[in-house]
Write a structure and sequence with these properties.
- The chain has about 190 residues and is mainly beta.
- The chain has one domain (about 35-190): Oxidoreductase, molybdopterin-binding domain (Sulfite Oxidase, Chain A, domain 2, Alpha-Beta Complex).
- It has 5 helices and 11 strands.
- The protein has helices spanning about 5, 50-55, 80-85, 110-115, 170, and strands at about 10-15, 35-40, 45-50, 60-65, 70-80, 95-100, 105-110, 120-125, 130, 140, 155-160.
- Strands 1, 4, 5, 8, 9 and 10 form a 6-stranded mixed β-sheet that branches. A 5-stranded mixed β-sheet has the order 3-2-11-6-7.
- A hairpin with a 5-residue loop joins strand 2 and strand 3 (about 45-50).
- The longest helix has 5 residues, at about 50-55.
């Protein structure tokens, strides 16, 4: 793919991996950490960190686009696919949306179909090394086709829902979807 087609409009390419987030960097206590799968499911499930890491791993190389205007090519992520995580529970009829829950009450929303895309994963490694705490260690959602605020850091659970619910940034004026190719940056564009 040519660089022109690879770089979304309004973006500039960087070799750096800028650090942006709201609030402080949370502490990680491996013994107390848990990942909860709940909502429109037949039975809730909770995983320890070690159990999460034991799930089948995958590696994906994807571009990453931030709403602030930077893009970084060829990020190599290691983690567990969203499909694998969703497969741990039985979804109830009508489940059509996901609310991803992170530390410090951070949330972001996705349509279920996009959450289950083959390029979406829960990552703990980036470019061959563990994520730094500033980049979301111990677990970060990666949604390459959408702006990076959808790639929530410090993820602690997913809630399957029958109705859409705006997440943190979506409630503060960011676009409910966040497609970088159509520059869906702000809710005023909806």
């Amino acid at each position: 793919m040519s660089e022109k087609k690879r770089l979304p409009p309004g973006q500039r390419l960087t070799q750096e991996f800028p650090i942006l987030h709201f609030g402080g960097v949370p502490d990680f206590d491996r013994a107390r950490w848990s990942f909860r799968i709940f909502g429109a499911v037949a039975e809730e499930k909770t995983l320890t960190y070690d159990r999460f890491l034991a799930l089948p791993n995958t590696e994906r190389t994807e571009d990453f686009h931030c709403v602030t205007g930077w893009s970084r090519y060829d990020n190599r992520w290691t983690g567990v696919s969203s499909r694998t995580v969703a497969g741990l529970v039985t979804l109830l009829p009508g489940a059509a949306h996901v609310l991803v829950h992170g530390e410090q009450n951070y949330t972001t929303n996705l349509p279920l179909a996009e959450f289950l895309d083959d390029d979406v994963l829960f990552a703990w490694r980036h470019d061959g090394a563990d994520l730094t705490p500033e980049h979301g260690y111990p677990l970060r959602l990666v949604v390459p086709k959408l702006y990076a605020w959808k790639s929530a850091k410090w993820v602690r659970g997913i809630e399957f829902m029958t109705e859409d619910q705006r997440g943190f940034w979506e409630s503060y004026g960011y676009h409910n979807h966040g497609d970088p190719w159509t520059e869906e940056r702000y809710s005023s564009q909806e």
